[in-house]
Amino acid sequence: xxxxxxxxxxxxxxxxxxxxxQSNVLNCAMKFAVYLPPQASKENPVPVIYWLxxxxxxxxxxxxxxxxxxxxxxxxxxxxxxxxxxxxxGVADDAEGAYDLGLGAGFYLNATQAPWDxxxxxxxYIVDELPALIEQxxxxxxxxxxxxxxxxxxxxxxxxxxxxxQYRSISAFSPITNPINCPxxxxxxxxxxxxxxxxxxxxxxxxxxxxxxxxxxILVDQGEDDGFLQEQLKPELLVAAAKASGxxxxxxxQPGYDHSYFFIQSFIEDHLRFHAQFLTA
Amino acid sequence: xxxxxxxxxxxxxxxxxxxxxQSNVLNCAMKFAVYLPPQASKENPVPVIYWLxxxxxxxxxxxxxxxxxxxxxxxxxxxxxxxxxxxxxGVADDAEGAYDLGLGAGFYLNATQAPWDxxxxxxxYIVDELPALIEQxxxxxxxxxxxxxxxxxxxxxxxxxxxxxQYRSISAFSPITNPINCPxxxxxxxxxxxxxxxxxxxxxxxxxxxxxxxxxxILVDQGEDDGFLQEQLKPELLVAAAKASGxxxxxxxQPGYDHSYFFIQSFIEDHLRFHAQFLTA
Lengths: 281, 281
Hints:
The structure is a homodimer of 281-residue chains.
Chain A: E1 4-11, E2 14-23, E3 28-36, E4 46-52, H1 60-65, H2 69-75, E5 78-82, H3 122-137, E6 140-148, H4 151-162, E7 170-173, H5 183-193, H6 197-200, H7 205-211, E8 218-223, H8 229-233, H9 235-245, E9 249-254, H10 261-279
Parallel strand pairs in A: 4-5, 4-6, 7-8, 8-9
Antiparallel strand pairs in A: 1-2, 2-3, 3-5
């Protein structure tokens, strides 16, 4: 698996770099970004936090807007930010260019329905292909945690819960907690997975958590003035699911904050320190 | 002078807000953004750092990418980010849409040449109209400092040097130090100010600084791997000018850093703390 560097910039003594590569899982060329803290070297590999972004985002939104690098450099953790869907001319998209289906809206699942099933395999990309690529090409250890925002918070929770042996900890900002039960999720899942709701439950954090006690620590932050809170995000259902299974999850409701990167940058330090305590233990 | 709020988001306990207003100086509608730290109130007005952005930027680039709010909140300083040129359908632009002339490239001067002289008065906007507006509508003190990047570094230096009674301190990232002597400056100044180079010197930091001892402290950061360093920025000429007039200026050359916001976010904390020591004294 080869990768090609497309940009690099020094930041807080480390390096932000972007790469392109041919994805076997997604059947298209993909971009990702990595932040390597100053400590990272062949002699001193560092753990990795995978960041999954939300609807409409690429590898760039978190890296440009989250203000995460000062603390990542202090803690000596790398951050990897993939794109949010397969990309390119041959990749299916919503006919009307909707922001919540198709390009930029991969929902971190493996689609089973045409035309989506040809490329939309973000679940396997995040779980298998991308970490293998990162561990092949960069000075990192196998220690991994996973975090994300909104659709990416859904991705971080579902992937972390389903692959708990692979990660040390999970966190999310404003996650879509119960996609089988909200408009964004129902629209995407019906296209990607078909009409059998039983098939949807494998990608639903509330369903996963309520039936299985989580073995990883989980931190969730949610802004109380988030315009998507009641219709799309529903953190109270995640809390109930964690309680039902006796899982270790902390939900922090943050008064006055919305759904934007201004909210993420206000609390990203807490998430990095939360993950670092497990990654560097 | 009235202003209209167009967005607001809580960040690090304070508020990022965007506004539109009709500018009398620029003869068009303008946007600006303000960060108000949590301490700001009518009973406790706070000082202001004005941030001037570079070519192609709007009020948004710094606010989204600089990662400045955590420290601004700690220090209790407001930040105001104006746009970089007049805007709107009636505003002259380069015929070929060049990034370094016209919209997004106001160069913080008062144009004297048609068609630019109808709207391009960013100097008077930054020096007079905008601070009056800010002090009318927000819980701020008259204490001000000024900073900026690239074209905005040129703006911060020239405006600060020419209005030293109005500011407490000046800083810049990667400033265009000697526009009369580099391609970006020569192109813009010839269009905005005509062909008499004597008229250009009033907007040239090197010219201003070499003939007059600066009464304000000045901090400049410059990345050593900045692709514009030698042809456009020329910090060594600013150092020589400061030395010639016995002015107090610190230039820090930063190995490995480029011209991007990744560079700015790496050192913005130093600039905020530099200004705060004079603003809160």
